Amino acid sequence: MSSFKQAFTSSLGKKLIMSLTGLFLCTFLVVHLIGNLQLFHDDNGKAFNEYAYFMTHFPPIKVVSYLLYASIILHAIYALVVTLHNKKARPVKYAVYDGQANSKWNSRNMGFLGTILLFFIVSHMYSFWWKYHRDQVPYIEYRSDLNSGSTQTRELAAAEFNDYQNFTDNGVEVVRARDLYRQVEFAFQEWWLVAFYVIAMVALSFHLIHGFRSAFQTLGWNHKKYVPLIRFIGIWGFGVLIPIGFAAMPLYFFFCK
Amino acid sequence: MSGHMNLTLKVWRQKNKETRGKFVTYKADDISPDMSFLEMLDVVNEGLTRKGEDPIYFDHDCREGICGMCSLHINGRPHGPKEETTTCQLHMRSFHDGQTIVIEPWRAAAFPVIKDLAVDRSAFDRIQQAGAYVNINTGGVPDANAIPIPKDVADEAFESATCIGCGACVAACKNASAMLFVSAKISQYALVPQGQTERYSRAQAMVAQMDEEGFGSCTNTGACEAECPVGIKLTNIARMNREYFTAKFFKQEEAH
Amino acid sequence: MLDSKIPAGPLAEKWSNHKFHLKLVNPANKRRFTIIVVGTGLAGASAAASLAELGYNVKAFCYQDSARRAHSIAAQGGINAAKNYQNDGDSVYRLFYDTIKGGDYRAREANVYRLAEVSVNIIDQCVAQGVPFAREYGGLLDNRSFGGAQVSRTFYARGQTGQQLLLGAYSALNRQIHAGKVEMFTRHEMLDLVTIEGQARGIITRDLETGAIESHAGHAVLLCTGGYGNVFFLSTNAMGCNVTAAWRAHKRGAFFANPCYTQIHPTCIPVTGDHQSKLTLMSESLRNDGRVWVPKTVELAQKLRKGEIKVTDIKEEDRDYFLERKYPSFGNLVPRDVASRNAKQMAEEGRGVGKTGLAVFLDFAEAISRLGEDAVRAKYGNLFDMYYQITDENPYKQPMRIYPAVHYTMGGIWVDYNLMTTIPGLYALGECNFSDHGANRLGASALMQGLADGYFVIPYTVGDYLAGLGFAPVDKNHPNFEKTRLEVEGKVKQLLSMKGSKTVDDIHKKLGHIMWEYCGMARNEEGLKKAKGLIQELRKEFWSDVTVLGENEELNLSLEKAGRVADFLELGELMVDDALNRRESCGGHFREESATEDGEAKRDDENYSYVAAWEYQGDNQPEVMHKEELIFENVKLTQRSYK
I need a labelling partner for B208 at 20 to 30 A (CA). Which of A71, C318, C347, C447 fits? Predict the structure, then answer.
């Protein structure tokens, strides 16, 4: 095996892939959260639906999205490979193993937390990504009077809808789009789905509190001057802010809509 | 005497590498809190010997916490409940009367049990043979003070070099990973000027040997650091990763 | 006749001249020779690595599971070297002088001078290997004064100098194992020496894991097997330290020199009870700031022992700072043997402290009030922690309890200037030999000697022997290999057949008690004679009533211990014989009959300025003593005084 290839197949190399894909997914979460904040706009989903169109049609973003899918798959596959390898490293288990005494629960159960997240991702993508791409969401038309600023909406039938449109007609801006917003609103009326999302975000929190910091450690970016900052971002940014931000969405639709 | 304890021990007994082992229960009566854990086992062994039963085999030598030969997974933790303490320095006052103590050998594919509580840790030797040295012969070296080393660098190298090679890091890690041990060795040489000439080939060679031995991967749980009897830090693992990736991606040197 | 082979010429030129006259082995021919190294401590690991670097094939053996675990690893204080980095007047000659004087003039001048001479190379070598010695802020090496030396010549790595030096030597050894020049045998114990026509040609070992009794052939055999302090059962040695390899070589013809010279270290943590398996040393640097005392009266001491009063209840005027009282100029810093004997005396007077009464106080209260707790912590923190961990007593709040313990054995296999024993081809290095410390070893000199022998002496001297041998490989089929192997097997079988009522430890503890009582810190004719009888009886008891369990083909604790204790039982008697013979007090050997009026040690240079080298005569036969006269051409013999 070439020395360079070894860089990815060695125990350290596998961890490197976990780390890089994990950090990439972390950056995605930030973008995803900021984008999805459009859901909180009180505009019948206009901003959100326009954002959804942009994200699925702007070519550079599309490239990044394929990278993202690849990262998720790689992250999961390598997690499995590393876990199996690690299981093999201890064929006979301890009768008594007091993990609590020397490490955090989440750090020892990243695979379990990750599995919850994988289920979540599949379900989440089915509910929204798949249905959006398969044209299984309703359509909406926004008519905004540019002078008065008032907006009217109406649902479009499938026959009336070709594709996303955005034109100005007589001082009125017309936007026709797939109404993902409605789909979200609709989905989050189900209490069990909301509960599932909240649980998944708790899992995300625990996964990232360990994962974010751990990724830097794996990369070897451990410096006493910067570790406190990495820890702070890992805990408060990725462990608290982001999961709460995401969890707020289903709760908002369930309780406020 | 007052303060003496009666304990129940559940000890892993295994005749040799080939046979299967099992737990056997023993009574350890009239144990003084001033005894070390190994002295408690000595007392049990003397009793067994008098009864004509095979004494419990465990590795130990210096009994002052420096040789790294003693091991034992005690109630779910390597070297028992006390932090920064080897089994030989663990005293029975850390236990209480009537307690049941489960004693197991280190568990790792790379550390096969050879008898009872003793395991074969020669994997550690082989990893060091792969590169934990400076390639110089005896004699013909410069004057010791010709190589000044900043005090904080020397101190940090010393901290890494204090590893006693007991294997508690492997035993504690849920993945049976040896990275704390290997990284401490790599760090010691990566830090000081003497280690620079083969810095990158060393990291590659030692990691390759580590993988060959069948240790698991690090998942950064920190259990190794928490259980290390001499306080080797996780920063060593980060440094090893850095050394290794730098070697693989940015340097010409190959492992040799 | 013992020929020490000390080269002629002025002291300072002896080693250089000698090196020039030693025969060399052609580089291409070195690979035709195999050298066996037994033990992988500082002496063994450094010798094995250095010889392999030169091109010899080396087979190295240790009983531990890794070469790195040899007991050199436990040395705390430091390593001396005459570098004079501190510009405080040190020199090779001064280190030589201090060492020979510290040894109470019972070592060879030439050996000691060579030791001082190569000490500087050792530090260079270790630093080049990457040993992380303590440094100053400027990046240069730090030194400290150690063991009462007048100059700062001790290099150290916090309290773990032995560990760092051994790991350095071990790294050099690993490099040669990787290169295929050293074949390493761990968990192997040497059980006999094979001689052919009077020359050492191999060893018989037992694989401790499988029980296999194996023959290993070599052109030379190096014993680097450490000291025999465990004859006392309790000592600061590791549990596995033993005399077996050295003793079996002795029985094959290697003379054993000065076995009675034992160093007893004053600052150890006291025994707590019968279960005690070993003693823990604390660096004697503690005596720089700690004050040693006991209660003034036996009554107070008794109350204290029974727990009726606390140590803090004892008023200042009721405390006897006995070292300060008796030795006003050196005070608490008197040499190890003096401090130890005085502690023993206090215990015998009934003024000892602790539950057993076998301890004296080492008090830091004054230092803490003078320097502050933080300053004391910075200096001794790790030692205080260790003490706290073992005793559960906080030395910041109450005085430490200390008591002497057996620490080092200056005696050992007799060697000539080339480190060769009386068996050609058999060498002894490090603590295993008797050569450099005389009757008493100075602090931080053990590490120095181990590495000097291994790195810088044996690589020269072994070549001289090998060059005269011819290249024929050692014939492993020679009947002596088979004969010796069968003898070893027979002995193992004999041990395994013993099913008496005593455990090996029972006997070992008894032996330890006899040795400590009669051949310990103070010895007298009556006691020694009694001890001799007791040991002989104990040996009979061992061979008739001990029990050894299990079988040969497994890791067998009972069997390992039994073999070692059998040898200690023989060595113990020789130590007593040697102590009986030496009717003078010198260094670690204090004969009560040879004391000054105020009870201090008195040497007898007229009659005892010699090395006593003992020759084995057969089982249960008295050994024959050979004298090697010590000739002092450079130093003037003086009586030590610390008043």
Answer: A71
Q: Are residues A223 and A108 in the same domain?
A: yes
Asked whether the beta carbons of residue B248 and residue A98 sit closer than 8 angstroms, the reply is no
Q: Give the other-Cβ count within 10 Å of C537's Cβ.
A: 12
Residues in chain C with CB shorter than 8 Å from the CB of B122 are 65-66, 186
Which chain B residues are within 8 Å of C139, Cβ to Cβ? Answer: 148-151, 154
Residue A211 reports pLDDT greater than 70: yes
ipTM above 0.95, yes or no: yes
CB contacts of B2 in chain C (<8 Å) are none
Is the Cβ pair B195, C133 closer than 8 Å?
no
Pairing of the two strands C426-428 and C220-223: parallel
pLDDT on residue C336: 86
B161 in contact with C at a CB cutoff of 8 Å? yes
- Would you state the pLDDT for residue B1? 45
Q: How far is B240 from chain C (nearest CA, A)?
A: 18
**At residue A2, does pLDDT exceed 90?**
no
Q: Which domain holds residue B50?
A: 5-115
Query: Is C344 within 8 Å of C521 (Cβ atoms)?
Result: yes
Q: Do the chains contact at C137 and B151, CB–CB below 8 Å?
A: yes
Q: How far is CA C552 from CA C61, C486, C497, in A?
A: 19, 14, 11
Q: Are residues A92 and A121 in the same domain?
A: yes
| Dist. CA B10–CA B22, nearest whole Å | 10
Nearest by Cα to C546 from C560, C558, C532: C558
pLDDT of residue B2: 52
Among candidates B227, B242, B249 on the partner chain, residue whose Cβ is nearest the Cβ of A7? B249
Give buried/exposed letters for C51-68 (b at 16+ CB in 10 A, else e).
Answer: bbbbbbbbbbbbbbbbbb
Catalytic center residues of C: 336
Q: Which helix (H) or strand (E) holds B203?
A: helix B199-212
Burial class (CB in 10 A: 0-12, 13-18, 19+), B60: buried
The whole domain housing A161 covers: 139-178
Q: What is the pLDDT of residues A79-134, one digit of tens each?
A: 999 999 999 999 999 999 999 999 999 999 999 999 999 999 999 999 999 999 99
Predicted confidence (pLDDT) per residue in A16-73, tens digit: 999 999 999 999 999 999 999 999 998 999 999 999 999 999 999 999 999 999 999 9
Chain B residue whose CA is closest to A214: B220
C111 has a pLDDT exceeding 90: yes
User: Amino acid letter at C392?
Assistant: D
Is C125 close to B162, i.e. CB distance below 8 A?
no
In a domain, B167, yes or no: yes
Give the CATH number of domain C479-608; options: 3.90.1150.10, 3.30.360.10, 1.10.579.10, 1.20.58.100.
1.20.58.100
Whole-number pLDDT of residue A1 = 56
Do residues B234 and B206 share a domain? yes
Instruction: Tell me the C-alpha distance between A90 and B105, whole Å.
Output: 12
Question: Given B62, B91, B137, which is nearest C74 (Cβ)?
Answer: B62
Rg value, chain A, Cα:
22
Instruction: Summarize pLDDT for B110-128 with one digit per residue, the tens.
Output: 999 999 999 999 999 999 9
pLDDT in tens, C9-50: 999 999 999 999 999 999 999 999 999 999 999 999 999 999
CA–CA dist C558, C506 (Å, integer)? 12
Name which of B187, B182, B174, B248 is nearest B216 in CA terms.
Answer: B174
Instruction: Show Cβ contacts of residue C26 under 8 Å, excluding neighbours closer than 6 positions.
Output: none
| Closest Cβ–Cβ partner in A93, A94, A217 for B238 | A217
B245·A213 Cβ contact <8 A: no
CB C188 within 8 A of CB C208: yes
